[in-house]
Task: structure prediction
Amino acid sequence: MLAPELRRLGATLVGVSPQVPEKLRDIKDRHQLDFQIATDADNSLGRRFGILYSFNEPSRRLSAESGSPIGEVTGTGTWELPMPTAIVIDRSSTVRFADVSPDWLVRTEPADIIAAVQAITARAAA
Result:
C-alpha cells in the first residue's frame, strides 16, 4: 500500500480535493484512509498547478439531473474539477515528479510515486 511505504521512506502523503471538509471527513472515515486529506477551497491549488477542467454541457446536465451538481459537492459553485494528479515535492519545495491524467478514471500507479520518492532519498544520500 502507498501510505505505509511512503511513511517508511520518511515521506508524507497528503490527498487534496476541492470537496468541503465535511465531505472529506466522511470519505476518510468511510474508506479508513490513514493519511492527511486537505481541502483545496475554491480550487485555488488546482488552478495554480493548471490541472483544472470544466464539465462539458452533457456532463453538466447529468450532474444536475443526479441532484448533486459538482459545484455543490465541492462548495465552489463552479463546474471545475482537478484532473487526477500525483505530485512529489522534495524538502526544498521543488517538484520532482508530476503525473496528470485527463481521464478521471486513470490514476498514477503507486510504484511510480514510490520510485520518485526513492530517487529523492538517493539524491539526498549522495
